[in-house]
Amino acid sequence: MAESKLTMEKIVNLCKNRGFVYPGSDIYGGFANTWDFGPVGVELKNNVKRSWWKRFVQESPNTYGVDAAILMNPRVWEASGHVQSFGDPKMDCKNCKQRFRADTLIEAHSKGAVAAEAMTNEQMEAYIAEHDIKCPHCGVRSWTPIRKFNPMFITSRGTLEAESDKVYLRPETCQGEYVNFLNVQRTSRAKVPFAIAQIGKSFRNEITPGNFLFRTVEFEQMELQMFCREEQSMDIYADYKAKALKYIEDLGLKAENLRFHDHDKLAHYAKAACDIQYNFPMGWQELNGIHHRGVWDLSRHQEYSGKSMLYIDPFTNEKYIPNVIEYSIGADRLTLALLCAAYEEQTLEDGDTRVVMHFHPAIAPYKVAVLPLQKNLSEKAKEVYGVLCKKFMCDYDEAGSIGKRYRRQDEIGTPFCVTVDFDTLNDNTVTVRDRDSMEQIRLNADELAAYIERLVEFN
Ligand code: ATP
Known about the structure:
alpha+beta, five-stranded mixed beta sheet
């Protein structure tokens, strides 16, 4: 079996052709850096989100879920600092008028070896001049000075112009957790340490979107805020670093393609921060972040809302504002990493080739495909499908040779193919083919659901 080099182009092509992801507004020629998940992709991403929720909410007794509104009181974004100081260091090319982020230009030029986040604007400008970093679009070096660009999308609310109020599309989900700290604590009788988790859309008018799903202007975040005492906060931070790594390894990302990147430069309120980076086809890039945010967020909301964010310890009656440990991972970015990790081109022993997506069965779009060997077996095959589709996402295909149908399922990562043949009519047994080993076993159709159920769990 031979492997060839993975490129983003191969992933994008497979995604477009097999129904994972299409360009947004495709029939209008697309809409830059927006993507629509197709029938197979929506299952994949939903399964990724389910796996995260299972691990970090369902199996974490002190974690409570919320689903907060995207549009929030604009005061929230004043309290969070986004209105005043959220911003990326942008530079414009004076020659072709394209806009870039100075830090990403440096990181791309140094292939990830230089952490530009630790640099001041002056240091970044000096680095770009010294290393003669040219515009990736036109090849000329003629930059404006670095300026801050606020990537929040602004819209307005109200039916009359006079009533209209500036509102923001949230650039991060975590504010929905902070503003519900008191509500969740009270209604769930939660005791510190406890976490609030959420999965939802965020919007950023990114200066340099691109690399397919990696950086888009609209994306989903899966994240939680753990509220804790200061004395326990560094242990909890370390604990989330380990849990975050284990989660993505369990989903199928290989240890050699993952690394921690501790931040050199911290926000003034932060006590520690790190990313986990993945070795994408375009190089090492952030996959998720774990941040120790001190008491900054709750203190700011206390100041701006006038509501006390003090937690009263039920045992000691001590009053304090809890520290926050944040763990945040992009659902789309993780889905992209999983697509890259799953992709394999194999040359088989008979000289044939196949593309196979080795997804963890728990995230595979379809768990099983039912394939009648011949069309005149479709009645029995549909009966088998009818039982299985009550339990799992299940595909049914009777078009083309059995070999071609196996290949189609391999390309969308279906872990099991069930073939109904003439023996099935006599003894109710079917063939079950394993996607990765291509080995086949014979099973009674009545045992299929239980057999597959066991193998597609995420633990
Ligand atoms: P980056 O440095 O890549 O811009 P960030 O440090 O701004 O990311 P956070 O604000 O910490 O990212 O967001 C947490 C996670 O959300 C990121 O680790 C990433 O997985 C995801 N994410 C952030 N911005 C985007 C985006 N524009 N498109 C897709 N996913 C994103």
